[in-house]
């Protein structure tokens, strides 16, 4: 069970979410007509059974958690383990969308997730990040983008001579000397290990950082599902030189699961909120992210502050592979439900079904007790 409602970042409890839906909305969610609810249950079980038959006894991934490394004395342990990943487990809107095996990151005693845990620290601190591969089956490393670090901590085995083999641990010292939003990923056989899910975000808050009213992290990823299927034992062939992405996710989920309040990443706002989104692209393709009915400004790029006189109103920002864009806007539209999506429209699909894929939403709390929100929750598989 997720520790929050909505995208990782700002927290909203499940109780607060249910209160926002209102009594009528809650009843609509739980009890549309009985046949519809039974179909939803059957579809969910069908998706779970299919994944279990493919993935055997593998654990299922959870949504990424935010780890405040400062509160842990500046240290965190990451390990990777095989898991089953349901980008969208139901048959609604072109599903189910399943990756029968991924290599998920897990922080300390948390749950495995794709993307990996969001590591958050403060400028001027050092993070001691231990890669625990004692129970692993293949070599791994950790490479952190953005910050300046010692040569030996760069995480590239061919240039540092350091890799973490099965049965080993290794601790990287990662100075928090470049404020902003950054990435980390495995840099051993990178073309395969990122494709298998070994990626995540870390955030360095500048000294004196003032959070927005709502602040969220969103990671985009395009997948060629042949590699996860091959690793799960299916009779498919993956060629990284002939990559053909067929799954598109935000924070590991495809629409409509992206709108699921606890398993997905809706951007939940109240009218008048100042909203800050940290967008990261861990995929291999660029993704022009568009938000409906809101103008935003890009205030950070790859850990660099954009001067105020260089900012301007936008409604699309094109996030290239490995780029990070932080955008800000005011929730000043008529309260409702507005799309956030990649504007390469074939990325907003589940197979041949549109809409799906790399699509999320900005959801005003005042719109949560409407019939249309209840219908979206049914598509996403959310039940009270």
From TrEMBL:
The keyword Oxidoreductase applies. Keywords: Copper, Metal-binding, Oxidoreductase. The keyword Metal-binding applies. InterPro entries: Cu-oxidase-like_N, Cu-oxidase_C, Cu-oxidase_fam, Cupredoxin, TAT_signal. Pfam families: Cu-oxidase_2, Cu-oxidase_3. It comes from the Archaea. One of its GO terms (molecular function) is metal ion binding. Residues 43-69 are annotated as: Disordered. This is Multicopper oxidase domain-containing protein.
């Amino acid at each position: 069970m997720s520790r929050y409602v909505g995208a990782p970042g700002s927290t909203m409890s499940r109780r607060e979410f249910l209160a926002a839906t209102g009594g009528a909305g809650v009843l609509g969610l739980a009890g549309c007509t009985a046949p519809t609810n039974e179909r939803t249950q059957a579809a969910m079980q069908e998706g779970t059974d299919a994944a279990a038959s493919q993935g055997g006894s593998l654990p299922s991934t959870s949504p990424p958690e935010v780890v405040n490394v400062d509160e842990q004395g500046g240290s965190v342990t990451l390990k990777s383990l095989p898991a089953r990943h349901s980008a969208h487990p139901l048959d609604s809107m072109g599903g189910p969308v399943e990756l029968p095996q991924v290599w998920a990151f897990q922080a300390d005693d948390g749950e495995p997730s794709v993307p990996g845990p969001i590591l958050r620290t403060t400028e001027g601190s050092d993070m001691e990040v231990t890669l625990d591969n004692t129970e692993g089956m293949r070599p791994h490393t950790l490479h952190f983008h953005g910050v300046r670090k010692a040569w030996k901590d760069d995480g590239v085995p061919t240039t540092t001579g350091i890799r973490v083999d099965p049965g080993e641990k290794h601790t990287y010292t990662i100075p928090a000397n470049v404020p902003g939003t950054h990435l980390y990923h495995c840099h051993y056989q990178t073309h395969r290990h990122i494709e298998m899910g070994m990626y995540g975000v870390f955030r360095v808050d500048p000294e004196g950082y003032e959070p927005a009213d709502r602040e969220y992290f969103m990671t985009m990823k395009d997948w060629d599902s042949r590699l996860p299927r091959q690793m799960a034992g299916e009779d498919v062939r993956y060629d990284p030189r002939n990559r053909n992405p067929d799954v598109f996710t935000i924070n590991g989920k495809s629409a409509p699961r992206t709108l699921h309040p606890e398993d997905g990443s809706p951007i939940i706002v109240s009218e008048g909120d100042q909203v800050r989104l940290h967008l990261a692209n861990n995929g291999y393709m660029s993704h022009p992210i568009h938000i409906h009915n809101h103008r935003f400004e890009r205030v950070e790029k790859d850990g660099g502050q954009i001067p105020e006189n260089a900012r301007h109103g936008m409604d699309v920002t094109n996030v290239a592979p490995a780029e990070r864009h932080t955008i800000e806007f005011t929730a000043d539209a008529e309260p409702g439900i507005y799309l956030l999506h990649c504007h390469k429209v074939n990325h907003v699909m589940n197979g041949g079904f549109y809409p799906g894929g790399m699509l999320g939403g900005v959801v005003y709390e005042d719109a949560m007790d409407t019939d249309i929100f209840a219908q979206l929750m049914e598509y996403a598989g959310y039940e009270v």
